[in-house]
Amino acid sequence: MIQTTTDRKWLPLYEALASDVRLNILELLAEKEMNVKDLAQTLGLSSAIVTMHVKKLETGGLIHTALIRKQGGTHKICTLAVSSIEIKLPQFNEQQRAFDEVSIPIGHYTRFDIQPTCGLATADHVIGQYDDPRFFFEPERMHARILWFGSGFVEYRIPNYVLPGQQLEEIEISLELGSEAPGIAENWPSDIHFYVNDTLLGFWTSPGDSGQGRGKLTPAWWSDSVNQYGWLKVIRITEQGTFLDGQQLSAVTIQDIRMSRNEWTLRLEVPDTAANVGGLTLYGEGFGNYDRDIIFRTYRR
């Protein structure tokens, strides 16, 4: 999902959507990946015209393109880059809310219990060996930008900056994540559970371990045949309940969270007892499609 605003930097994306031809291309690519020649034949247009439209869609971040050797020739293969777009419009007279924000690097977990397949990597190399949980204790893990495991959990500790006398209004957590399959698998569901201070907020079923093209930020040394990118999910715990991307996840409210004076804990878990045990991949800065780590915000009055 792309989250946009009315900031002028998003004009290439909005321009990419402002065309019947380009909307038709998006609809075709939703069914299967296609090369420019196939798109041109299906749309009844010249390859030159379709190439121009594809370039605008790529500039807008809506599709990926890659040159692939196939059937004795080189083809420019087009695939969708995102599944949805959220536009946040300016709010009239919206009062600015006070908040504290902590960015948590992927490798800064404080507790874990995981099962293979598993591993973690920095921006330029894999830490230790694949599928050996012992390397999750490796001090170098603090520099990890991506981690994955087949089942179990990782837990993070976050400073609590809400002072006595201040009223906690909302917790917002955003992170890029997906399933963990051996290799990649588009259809590999996983029930990823979210906990704050040991309170279960609910779970989200990740559809798979995506590999339809490389992640936008994937380092050049990273293999094409393993985890590429996930989905950016935003969890909000409010006075009305817990919401995932604006849809209610559970009835857990901010009042239901046991508050510690000094810290919060965030646990991400795929339990063995889940209906879909498809693992978890966490993408941090320099991996996936979003150049960010785990963001933990607390809003207060």
Automatic annotation (TrEMBL):
GO MF annotation, one: DNA binding
Matches recorded under PROSITE patterns: HTH_ARSR_2 (PS50987)
Pfam families per the UniProt record, alphabetical: HTH_5
CDD domains in the cross-refs: HTH_ARSR (cd00090)
Superkingdom of the source species: Bacteria
Keywords from the named record: DNA-binding
Domain spans labelled HTH arsR-type: 2-96
Transmembrane segment boundaries: none
InterPro entries, A to Z: ArsR-like_HTH, HTH_ArsR_DNA-bd_dom, UCP030050_HTH, WH-like_DNA-bd_sf, WH_DNA-bd_sf
PANTHER family with a match to the protein in the record: TRANSCRIPTIONAL REGULATORY PROTEIN (PTHR38600:SF1)
Full protein name: Transcriptional regulator
